[in-house]
Amino acid sequence: MSLCLSRLTLARNPATTALKALIDPIEGPALDRLHDPERGRIMDAHHRLIWALFADDPDRRRDFLWRAEGNGRFLILSPRPPAADGAGLFLPPEVKPFAPDLRAGDRLGFVLRANATRTRKTVPDVRAQRVDVVMDALHALPSGSESDARREARMAAAETAGRDWLARQGEVVGFQVTDFAAADYSVVPLPAHVGPRKGQPQFGVIEMTGRLEVTDPDAFLAQIAVGFGRAKAFGCGLMLIRRA
């Protein structure tokens, strides 16, 4: 499958200015610091915005991955280029082929925003549950206000559980993690929830960086094309790579 990597930037025109509060309400790194219902709404707004570039058929299924870079900028990996006119909301897209020539033993730096989950079955004859790896690691800690101790425990869990999760991915799809850091971890409530905050569906997002070694180039590139983890509709799963 041929892929393209596109860089999109919101146009600065009267239309986007009038709609900014809806389509890109917060700029820059402030988005990554949100740990409240607003972040889910922003991710949902960005997803709908990106969909406008690929909605050429009412029956079309999502076949792209995307990542918000802040300040109205987005990266998109897709088998077809986005709409050339940017749906009237973007500057003309910068599109280039995504076809890295990888060999076993290549060392790459990576950046990945991921909703990392695993399957947990605690009761016999009951359907297994899919749980966020960091939330699961923090399950034994007391809930409540965000204390410094809990914040430190959360980041320690993100570091350990995130690396273990990515290493397991690599065992299946052709790479080994050689260096890993969790730059941030946040919990994002699903924006469509109506009702009390307690019990609101949510998902965790780990900001991962590090280096890896390719062991099976074909399997690795095939996985990059479909993304890592879940919550891809909300801008998770796109791994960016570069020569280390």
Task: Set out the fold topology.
Elements: E1 3-9, H1 14-23, H2 37-51, E2 65-70, E3 73-78, E4 94-98, E5 107-114, E6 117-120, E7 129-132, H3 133-137, H4 148-173, E8 175-189, E9 202-214, H5 217-226, E10 239-243
3D architecture notes:
This protein is an alpha+beta fold and 244 residues long. The protein folds into 2 domains: 96 residues, no CATH class; 137 residues, Alpha-Beta Plaits (2-Layer Sandwich). Helices cover 27% and strands 30% of the residues. Strands 2-3-1-4 form a 4-stranded antiparallel beta sheet, with helices on one face. About 4% of the residues have low confidence.
In short:
This protein is α+β, with helices and mostly antiparallel strands and 244 residues long. It is built from five helices and ten strands, in the order βααββββββααββαβ. The protein has a four-stranded antiparallel β-sheet, with helices on one face. Strands 8-9-5-10 form a four-stranded antiparallel β-sheet.
